[in-house]
Amino acid sequence: MNKEKPSAEKKASATNQQIKTSRTPAQNSAEQTKLSVLLHLEKRALAAQNNQALSFVIANETHLLTPYRQSLIMEKNIGGQFILSQASGLAHIVEDSPFSIWLQSMVASLDLDGHEAKSILVQSESIREDLQPGWLEWLPEQLLIIPVLDSDNNVAMIVLYAREQAWSPLDLDLLHRLHDCYAYCYRAMDKGENNLARKLRQFISTGRLRWAAMLIVLALFIPVRLSVLAPAEVVALNAKAVASPIDGVIGEIYVQPNAVVNIGDALFSLDDSALQSRRNIALKALVIARADALVAEQQAFNDYNSKADLASALGRVREKEAELAAVELLLQRVTVKADRKGLAIFADKNDWIGRPVQVGERIMQLASAEDAGIEIWLPVADAINLDVGAPIRVFLHTQPLSPLDARLLQTSYQAGQSPEGVASYTLFGQFNDDKNLPRLGLRGTARISSDWTILGYYLFRRPIAALREFTGL
Predict the structure, then answer these.
(1) What is the mean pLDDT of each run of 10 residues along the chain (473 residues)?
(2) Residues 69 and 168 in one domain
(3) Is residue 125 part of a domain?
(4) Do 113 and 66 belong to one domain?
């Protein structure tokens, strides 16, 4: 230890002055011996390098100053309870032994934190009746308890001395004097360590923990709105899907993503090379069918039996005309045009050009900027009860400090996959301010609020659900 240590000679001189001089030579010799032992024990305590070495000196070497049957040291733990840490004559302590458990209960019944005396004399009659049989089994009649204070004047450790004889005033004076040195050494080491356990112990022992626990319990009953966070995207609530009218391959896209289009503007077209080939074949087949019909008509004038062949030839003409009309109709549908004004919403035109599509496959959407809403993917694991009209607060990535208010319009009945691949329910909401609407396609996080509940349920809802899932209760 690097702390300034008290002068042993000055302290011994002060103690010597307190002892009356009207003693016999034998008494004076015994007192001088005790003073020598006192100086020796103070020197041993000051030379201790840590709390463990100091506890060994207190428990095993104090016997040189005044006799006792047993010495016990109990230190206060983080929970504010005194736990047996050292016993005279023992190298190791078993904390869950019957004696340790009884001793802890006995010391707890004394409420030592409220005592300001340097020492406390305890007898078996002064403790609770249910603890007296243990006293008769493990301790002698006389028990002296000396508290050791920390740097904040809180009881951090107690030393128990037990013996059969009563404690004399001289013994008490010498022990008080010696324990002043013990306490000084303990505080010096305690300040040097400056450990968290001591601070927690002080916090608990002063009663502030009880007030903190009461405040925490009361805070658990504060009413809050049950809410959940989920990823969201600004979408058009009434967007119209533009799908492929036929099977084919995307040949060209005429608009850019998020471009404004008017009614009749071309959006995209399919590759018509295959249809043009079919049209040419159908056209040639029609020419041949008409030529065959003309020959059959001329033969019918000369041969009455050829009239049946004429009817068959005319039927083939009508068939080829229908095939040609069907191909031409498909050619007319190759180019898809806008049937309403709005924004063309799709990802990238280069991702679509050359891609084979099927009839009915969505290529893009036509939406109105004034129809912007919010689409939310609520994970199944975070689902809560939500009603239509529930408040929503949207935090967009582009403006996280300026949240937008919205209200819930609808929720999906079944869960599907979100863009991140998470099983989620799809929710749609409408912004409260329909004048300053965000741009379509922006993403962020939405907080959806439900019914009112208490803070305790809000904090422990997920752990309770996980516990029920694990235990099946």
Answers:
(1) 43 47 58 82 88 88 90 83 86 82 87 71 86 88 88 83 90 89 84 56 60 86 91 89 88 88 89 82 85 77 68 82 84 86 86 88 85 91 88 92 92 87 92 86 92 88 81 73
(2) yes
(3) yes
(4) yes
Rounded Cα distance between 28 and 141, Å, is 29
Q: How many CB atoms lie within 10 A of CB 291?
A: 12
HSE-CB for 87 with a 13 A CA cutoff: 15
Question: Would you say residue 223 lies in a domain?
Answer: no
Range of the domain at 256: 239-268+338-367
Say if residue 21 is in the same domain as residue 35: yes
User: Which of 46, 20, 42, 44 shows the shortest CA–CA distance to 31?
Assistant: 20
pLDDT computed for residue 7 by the predictor: 47
Residue 8: per-residue pLDDT? 43
Q: Is residue 305 part of a domain?
A: yes
pLDDT of residue 12: 46
**Overall size of the chain counted in residues:** 473
The number of domains in the chain is 4
List of residues 6+ apart from 192 with CB closer than 8 A: 1, 2, 3
Q: What span, in angstroms and rounded, lies between the C-alpha atoms of 285 and 320?
A: 6
Together in a domain, 261 and 322:
no
Rounded distance, CA 75 to CA 102, Å? 15
Are 68 and 103 contained in the same domain? yes
Q: Are 244 and 329 in contact (CB under 8 A)?
A: no
Q: CA nearest 309: which of 287, 301, 321, 281? A: 301
CATH code, 63: 3.30.450.40
User: In the prediction, which pLDDT does 307 show?
Assistant: 65
Amino acid 11: pLDDT: 47
Q: How far is CA 272 from the centre of its chain?
A: 57
Report whether 80 contacts 209 (CB < 8 A).
yes
**Nearest-angstrom CA–CA distance, 381 and 100:** 48
Looking at the domain assignment, is residue 453 inside a domain? yes
Q: Are 148 and 120 found together in one domain?
A: yes
For residue 57, the 8-state DSSP code is I
Among candidate residues 160, 108, 109, the one with its CA nearest the CA of residue 139: 160
